[in-house]
Every structure is written in structure tokens, then in C-alpha cells.
Amino acid sequence: MDSSAHDDFKFDTLALRAGTLRSEFNEHSEALFLTSSFCFSSAAEAAERFANAEEGYTYSRVTNPTVTMFQNRLAALEGGEACIATASGMSAILSVVMCALQAGDHLVSSQSIFGSTMQLFSAILPKFGITATFVKAGDLEAWRSAIQPNTKMFFLETPSNPLTEVADIEAIGRIAKSVQALFVVDNCFCTPVLQQPLKLGADVVVHSATKHLDGQGRVMGGALVGSRQFVMEKVFPFVRTTGPTLSAFNAWILLKGMETLGIRIERQSSNALQLARRLETHPAVKQVFYPGLESHPQYAIAQRQQKAGGAVLSFELKGATPQEQRANAWRVIDQTQVCSITANLGDTRTTITHPASTTHGRISAEARAAAGISEGLIRLAVGLEDAGDLHTDLLRGLDAAS
Ligand SMILES: *Cc1c(COP(=O)(O)O)cnc(C)c1O
Prior knowledge:
Number of strands: 12
Mean pLDDT: 95
CATH superfamily of the largest domain: Type I PLP-dependent aspartate aminotransferase-like (Major domain)
Largest sheet: 7 strands, mixed
Order of helices and strands: HHHEHEHEHEHEHEEHHHEHEHEEHEH
Structural class: alpha/beta
Low-confidence stretches: none
Number of domains: 2
CATH architecture of the largest domain: 3-Layer(aba) Sandwich
Bound molecules: pyridoxal-5'-phosphate
Distance between the termini: 56 Å
């Protein structure tokens, strides 16, 4: 299916077929090109390929057919012109930053972002003369007033982790556009199944393919999607020179993962909604955070912007003191028999995490409290198991807590 045909097909068809390249053998399943370099038929052809590295294959740091298939499929799913795949989500974010910004520039970012992204923006970029201001994602006035004469990028993660705060992509995009800042959205949680930020005004979408795109917790990967001009003229030369390239093997795994992306995300979202509703009525639970619940503060935005609530929900347990809250949360986690106690997400198997002592354990207690991450908070990344079994799994610890 060539890329000009994308407009004619629906998402589920593209997820299976967009970007497929067939070799001379006409294999049905996408081929895994485990090769670091490619041969030329003559010295003259080699010279030509090297002179024009975008056309044809020379070396897998530059391009590889299996990686190309993954890139073209994800570009089709996000509705973007071009995609570059990277070794991890973080290398995708780093590549965007390195290509869009230079010393003296400033970026504005939502404050509840992935921990390593926060670390990159707040501790690493300042060494290179790039500064950042962090704002509450849903506070449009805060985005506006954070703008400086040198602001060149807006960065947004929605929904946020672990409290699932939803921000209005279109509204923030308009503010970014008013100062010609490149608007980057991390679409890891929703995936293009639930939300396509490029259609809502984002310039670039970044992914940790490690999460839902693989979907089965097997490999690391990342990607960025945007205009041909930004992706091919700016990011591609950077990635092929500096080498944060996605491996062919991981690209092949991700291609297989994307075939089932639609049905996985829909089912994981409906499982998550069922669990969120049940947890909301449990006496030991203080609050449930899930964009699909009517009680969610940004429910209206989520309904407009996302096709469903997604796989991630969190809930806070009651407790008279932080110590008691933590004890209650740890009891729920320790009494599960189905959920995996691991900090990863986006897997077909449900994972359960205590953010305050793991993913958000390195930040100060005050910063954690300001971010709303209490000792009683549990994050669930809901998988494909039976929703009733998952509920029972959580009830063991919850009933003991109440
Ligand atoms: C995991 C994650 C990342 C980083 O991706 P890696 O593949 O681990 O490098 C970035 N953003 C979000 C929202 C994530 O969950």
C-alpha cells in the first residue's frame, strides 16, 4: 500500500497494511532485514547511493527496510507526512529537541511529564544553554504567560501520568502557533487509536513505542512523526549521523504489535473503565482518576479529544496519615495475584505501581505533594485480562484496608 493511498483507508486497515514493502520473494509477513549494510551492484552505484543517502539503502544506521516499514505505518496512523524511528522514546524526544532548538532557546512544557523527559529538560538541556519553564497542563493562561521572546517549543503530555490530567491540545496549539513555537505532543498514553494530535494542531508527535505500540512489553523503541520538512530535512540527518537508530529486530516486533493496536487499546480502555467505575464505589477508595469517568475534572475535554479513556487509571486510598495510606496501598499491591508489580505500562498484562515510592520516588516529598501524588496512590496500567478477575484481584487488599 503506497502512502498516497492512506486517505482512502480507515485506521484498522492502515494498522495492518500501511508501509508494507515486499522483497523479490513476495513474502506475506513483513521481512526482518537483519543486516548492518547493503551491497551495491557496482562501484558507480555505491558512489551514487552515498551521494544521495535518502534514496536506497547503504547502512542500517541510516535506513533499513524493516525500520522504513514501521516508520511509514506509524506516519499513516498518526496522519503525518513522515516518521523517524529511534531506539527508545527518550531518544525520539532528544532528537526533536536537538533539531528544533539551539543554545539561547527556551521551551515551555507541561509539568506532569515522564520522569526522564523532566530530567532532560531541567538538568541536561541547561548545560547546552536551553532553558525550560514548566506549567500546569490545563492552565492556558500559564502557557501564555510562560512565553519568552526566545520560546521556540511547546511540549505537552496528555493524559498525564499517573493522575490522568487531560489538557486541551487544540487550545494549547493555538497559543504555540501565535509565537511560532514548535508544538510537540507525547502521544504515548493514547496512541493514534484514541487521539491524533497532528489533526488537533500539533506539529510533532513523539512516541515511546516501548509501551502500547509493542503492547506486549518486549522491546524498546521510539518514534517521531511530523511534516516531511521537519522530519526528513532536520531530524533524519541528525539521527543518521548521531545514531539513536531503531534496530531492525525491534522494528519488526513493533510492526507485529501495531497489527493489534486498535483492538488492544479499545479493549484495555473498556476494561479500565469498568474497573474505574467499580473502584469509585469502594469504601476504602478516596478518589479514582480516569478520563472516562464523569467525575474526572476534564471529562468534557477528554470526551471531545479522545475516543476512550485509555488503559491507565490511578486511585487513591484513604488513610489517616501518609504512613497509613502507604500501608494500605502496599497491601493492595502485595495481595494481588494477577497484576504484575512493575513500573512499565502499555502491556497486554495489567501492571500495578506505587508511584510515590517508585516512578516518582526520587522527587522531594513536597514536590510530590504539589503534584498530587500521595502515599495512597496506586497506578494501574490495565491489560487484556478479564475485568472481573482484575477487580477481584484488587478487592483482596481493598477489603482488608476498609
Ligand atoms: C516511557 C515513556 C517515555 C520514554 O520512553 P522510553 O521508550 O522508555 O525511552 C516517554 N514518555 C512517556 C509518556 C512514557 O511513558
